[in-house]
Amino acid sequence: MSMKTFQDLIKEVHEKGICQECGGCTSFCSAAFETVIGFKNPNSPPEYVNKDACLECGICYYLCPQTHVLDEDLNKEYEFTDFASMPVGKFDKIYSCQSNDEEFQKYGTDGGIVNTLLNYLLEKKLIDGAIVSKADGPFSREALYAENKEDLIKASGTVLNISPQVDEVQRFSTYTRSIPELSHYKFKKLAIVGTPCQIYTIRCMQTLGVTPSEYIEICLGLFCYHNFLFEKSQIENFEKEFKLKFEEIKKINIKEDLILKLEENDSGERTLHIPFEKLGNYIRPACHSCSDFTNVYSDISFGGLGSPDRYTTVIPRTEKGKELFKKVLDSNAINCFDLDTTTKNCMKDLISKFSEQKTKRKAKFMDSLSVKV
Ligand SMILES: Cc1cc2nc3c(=O)[nH]c(=O)nc-3n(C[C@H](O)[C@H](O)[C@H](O)COP(=O)(O)OP(=O)(O)OC[C@H]3O[C@@H](n4cnc5c(N)ncnc54)[C@H](O)[C@@H]3O)c2cc1C
Ligand code: SF4
Ligand code: SF4
Ligand code: SF4
User: Fold this and answer.
1) What are 48-105's pLDDT values in tens digits?
2) Ligand 1 within 6 A of 225 CB?
3) What is the Å distance from ligand 4's center to 331 Cα?
4) Cα angle vertex 123, ends 92, 200, to 5°?
5) Would the pTM count as exceeding 0.85?
6) In a 3-state reduction of DSSP, which class is residue 286?
7) Best of 176, 220, 284 to mutate for ligand 4, by most ligand atoms within 8 A of CB?
8) Which end of the chain, N or C, is surrounded by fewer C-beta atoms within 10 Å?
């Protein structure tokens, strides 16, 4: 049987409209001295740049989160079976935590836990840097290599007060292409924060031994129900539909619904809750074909769902993740809400419910594709 190549990714992934544009294939193409594939248009799937130089090695196909070639290997390694029997993945304990650092708490998306953990790793020199994501406007983010606390604060969830440059940007997306950053920096020990599709690709690289994945010390995974993508033309519709101005958005949280904190005016700060069902027009198409909500292959997963306002839900998974979480807890950098058994069970049930809904959404979407074909 011949090796599947980028040509097969075009057929099986791009043409079906399920490319997550993670950049895994373009960043780790084996033809290192020639650019064979690349992103010609931002927010569109990658394309051939020089097809003749393709080595037909199949690496891009193996790494793609939409081919699932390595699922069996990953499931074995991360003790996961399937979403039907393990909707929240493998874990022993679940926590609801908040940072004890005033700045991480103030600027954090939820409890500021992800950045507090990264800061601990940087201060203890357990990593050289971390790939995170910086907001450059509402619903618009770009990858950032953070080497110190200042960088982490810059990339905190709530720092949205930068001019959104609405006139210059044609498309806004909350999705950050973090993986290509791996090839832009020199590091020996790295932490990466990512959505489930990104962490999946990284785990595939690690399974295949693709450089520089061996230098990734820890994968901090965010819960992710979907990401958003706005064409410039849609912004007006969004503003009309939800009676707001894009520039007014000061903070975005994603929990049971989309929570927008809007700029203070005479009547004070406004908080708007938008149910996911009303956001269909603004969801990245590829997110409909994705089943992992809680980031089952990460070392530790983090989300807002299940926790009170300004707290992060934390699920340590691997031995590495549990060890890091314990060290940070022991260092008194974070505090945990004292959860009784009933509250913990409610949290797990709620997270399971969202995970199950996401799997069903994927099944429905994939069915619709097979009907169209
Ligand atoms: C696109 C997206 C969708 C999400 N969907 C959900 C959801 O449906 N339900 C839910 O409960 N939680 C969701 N989360 C997770 C949640 O919003 C918080 O990120 C999480 O609870 C951690 O909060 P924190 O205050 O501890 O993190 P912080 O301490 O504020 O740190 C967050 C870190 O994540 C990095 N980051 C932010 N956005 C991205 C991105 N797009 N890609 C990579 N890194 C990024 C930041 O740079 C920062 O380092 C989502 C997050 C993102 C980014
Ligand atoms: S050289 Fe290998 S990794 Fe690169 S496009 Fe061709 S098949 Fe994919
Ligand atoms: S690896 Fe990522 S960018 Fe490449 S085809 Fe797959 S989903 Fe798209
Ligand atoms: S929903 Fe899935 S495909 Fe979309 S950004 Fe999240 S993890 Fe990636």
Assistant:
1) 999 999 999 999 999 999 999 999 999 999 999 999 999 999 999 999 999 999 999 9
2) yes
3) 33
4) 45
5) yes
6) helix
7) 284
8) N
Q: Cα separation of 140 and 203, whole Å?
A: 26
- Which ligand places an atom closest to the C-alpha of 361? 4
Paired tokens of 130? 């971390």
Read off the pLDDT of each residue in 290-318 and give the average, rounded to a whole number: 96
Between 284 and 171, residue with greater pLDDT: 284
Q: Which residue has the tokens 């539909």?
A: 241
Domains and CATH numbers, the chain: 1-69 (3.30.70.20), 88-372 (no CATH)
Tokens of 22: 């993670």
Determine if ligand 2 sits within 6 Å of the CB of residue 55.
Answer: yes
Which amino acid makes up residue 366?
Answer: M
> What confidence category does residue 232 fall into, taking pLDDT thresholds of 50, 70 and 90?
confident
Phi-psi region of 56 (alpha: psi -120 to 50; beta: other; left: phi over 0): left
Note the residue count of the chain: 373
262, 249 in Cβ contact below 8 A? yes
**What's the sign of the alpha-carbon dihedral 9, 12, 13, 16?**
positive
- Using pLDDT thresholds of 50, 70 and 90, give the confidence band for residue 179: low
Which residue type occupies 46?
A: P
Q: Do residues 130 and 148 make contact, with C-beta atoms less than 8 angstroms apart?
A: no
Question: Region 235-255: what's the mean pLDDT?
Answer: 86
Of 145, 85, 154, 99, nearest in space to 314 by CA: 99
Question: For 122, phi and psi rounded to 5 degrees?
Answer: -70, -45
Q: Tell whether ligand 1 has an atom less than 6 A from the beta carbon of residue 290.
A: no
Choice between 59 and 372, residue whose per-residue pLDDT is larger: 59
User: What are the structure tokens assigned to 284, written together?
Assistant: 């990245």
CA neighbor of 291 nearest in space, from 38, 49, 82, 34: 82
Ligand 3 binding pocket includes 157 (Cβ within 6 Å): no
